[in-house]
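EI: anyone free to look at a 128-residue chain?
SC: sure, send it
EI:
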Amino acid sequence: LIGRFKPIADRAPSMGGPGTGIAAGLPVNLDRAEAPGDWLNSVPAIQDDFFDQVDRFRKTFVQVPGCEQSTAERIREIVNDANKRLIKHHRLTQERQKRQLDYYVSRNAYAALHSFVFPHLQRILASA
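SC: here you go
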């Protein structure tokens, strides 16, 4: 379900109120029309494939102590693949847009994998 919802506008006036970038968790100068979440959510085929890859990774990848770098590299590959497809689909040319998209897609990947990745990291760090 991650990525398949619309953000709920924050009602706190100190946070910018409904309809602002801050309320949606976006930088202040980012219009809703430019929102990277919209870029991902507006292409169901890419979005579904991205979350299928993340889910398949979570179900099949074996984490081995000392090999955390390979875990991060595989997650980065999944994110990069989705980014490339979204950049091509939406014809994004500005580096700022590409960085925002990368941040949004990687954040979604790590949010979906939080319960998979972080307990492993905690065990590794606790035993160190």
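EI: The CA atoms of residues 24 and 104 lie 12 Å apart.
SC: 👍
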